[in-house]
Amino acid sequence: MPHPEAHADFVTDSPEHTQQFGIRLGQLIRPGDVICLSGELGAGKTTLATGIGLGWGAAEPATSPTFVFVNEYSRADGERLYHVDAYRLRDSADADSIALPDLLDDSKGAIMIEWAERVRAVLPPEWLWIELQWEDDRTRRVRVSARGERHVELLAAAREA
Ligand code: ADP
Ligand code: MG
């Protein structure tokens, strides 16, 4: 069965604007959602992830997990949000070493993955893929692609909000 798809493009003109979009999206996230973040260093992936964590309701602000590879946030209702940075991972064997497949299987967990293209082989077929592109000091082009019914719905809801 084909996976339905949807796309959206927009421009953000400040880190605050990027974070605000993250907050809106984070408020809508449910267990099983997979948020892939890509773009060069400094594009704004962690800035966006921080907003997503805030909107989701993480008790502490999401910081870059560059050195630990994965941060885990939890909420009083028992749901979890994982924040993975795949920058230093080279292949899917490395992805196994941080138990990425287990994180993706957590029925109470959603996940956001920076540098998701590096672990493409272990990603499920459905996700929300957010690509950030540096335009100038304060401006970033954002391309959002949704694959699968749930993520298409998530994107539509985020646009409405
Ligand atoms: P990445 O995780 O992609 O390496 P970060 O989010 O850590 O990127 O860093 C992005 C940097 O760019 C931050 O210093 C942020 O303040 C700055 N910035 C400037 N404009 C924007 C914008 N519109 N959106 C996101 N970040 C921005
Ligand atoms: Mg980062």
> What's the N-to-C terminus distance?
30 Å
Rg value = 14 Å
The first-level CATH class is given as: Alpha Beta
> Helix and strand string, N-terminal first?
EHEHEEHHEEEH
In short:
This protein is α/β, with parallel strands linked by helices. 31% of the residues lie in helices and 30% in strands. A hairpin with a 2-residue loop joins strand 6 and strand 7.
Characterise this structure.
The protein has one domain: Rossmann fold, CATH 3.40.50.300. The chain is globular. The longest helix is centred in the N-terminal third of the chain and has 14 residues, at 15-28. The chain is built from five helices and seven strands. Helices cover 31% and strands 30% of the residues. The chain has helices at 15-28, 45-56, 92-97, 100-105, 149-160; strands spanning 5-12, 34-38, 70-74, 80-85, 109-114, 127-136, 139-147. It has a seven-stranded mixed beta sheet. The structure holds adenosine-5'-diphosphate and magnesium ion.
Keywords:
161 residues; alpha/beta; Rossmann fold; 7-stranded mixed beta sheet; 5 helices; 31% helix; 30% strand; binds adenosine-5'-diphosphate; binds magnesium ion
Helix/strand layout:
Blueprint: E1 5-12, H1 15-28, E2 34-38, H2 45-56, E3 70-74, E4 80-85, H3 92-97, H4 100-105, E5 109-114, E6 127-136, E7 139-147, H5 149-160
Parallel strand pairs: 2-5, 2-6, 4-5
Antiparallel strand pairs: 1-7, 3-4, 6-7
Helix pairs in contact: 1-2, 1-5
The structure holds adenosine-5'-diphosphate and magnesium ion (MG).
